[in-house]
Amino acid sequence: MSGVNYVTKETLEQMRDELNALKTKGRAEIARAISEAREKGDLKENAEYDAAKEAQGLHEAKIATLENAIATARIVEADTIDTSKVSILCKVTITNVANKKTVTYQLVSETEADLKAGKISVTSPIGKGLLGKQVGEVADVQAPNGHIKFKIDNISV
């Protein structure tokens, strides 16, 4: 992950809490698993030891990814968002021109994206297509299943 990672203050706090938990409790649990596997004998033929070491590698990779996300994070405050055009943290109500289906999404960073909660990433095809558009404009989005046109109905915070 490179570049700036725009997040809310709450999300940054959640990321820091998760990182702290990974570095303390998570590392302690993995060290305990490695220690237990080591006690079971020959390390050359010890599948439990190999699995614990692999888990340690994945855990450290997750820590590194989270540290990078925190290092590149920039906090965006809701009161500084310009709602005259679609930007990060805006809630956008859009209508699919083809089937007249209306939906509201909030544009967020990749780390905050959660489609079930109505949060889509600004780097997703729909997010990219909506960025910079104003109310009344039609966004032509190149999605994996073809072109989709969305009319911007409303922009709010």
Strand content: 15-25%
Q: Would you list the SSEs in sequence order as H and E?
A: EHHEEEEHEE
User: Tally of extended strands?
Assistant: 7
Mean pLDDT: 88
Q: Indicate the low-confidence ranges by residue numbers.
A: none
Trace the largest sheet across and list its strands.
Answer: 5-4-3-7-6
Largest sheet: 5 strands, mixed
Distance between the termini: 26 Å
Give a verbal description of the structure.
With 157 residues, the chain is α/β, with parallel strands linked by helices. 39% of the residues lie in helices and 25% in strands. The protein has 3 helices and 7 strands; from the N terminus they run E-H-H-E-E-E-E-H-E-E. The strands form 2 sheets. Strands 5-4-3-7-6 form a 5-stranded mixed sheet. It has a two-stranded parallel ribbon with strand order 1-2. Helix 1 (9-38) packs antiparallel against helix 2 (47-71). The two termini are 26 Å apart.
In short:
The protein is α/β, with parallel strands linked by helices and 157 residues long. It has helices spanning 9-38, 47-71, 125-130, and strands at 5-7, 73-75, 91-96, 102-108, 119-121, 138-143, 146-156. The chain is elongated and about 70 Å long.
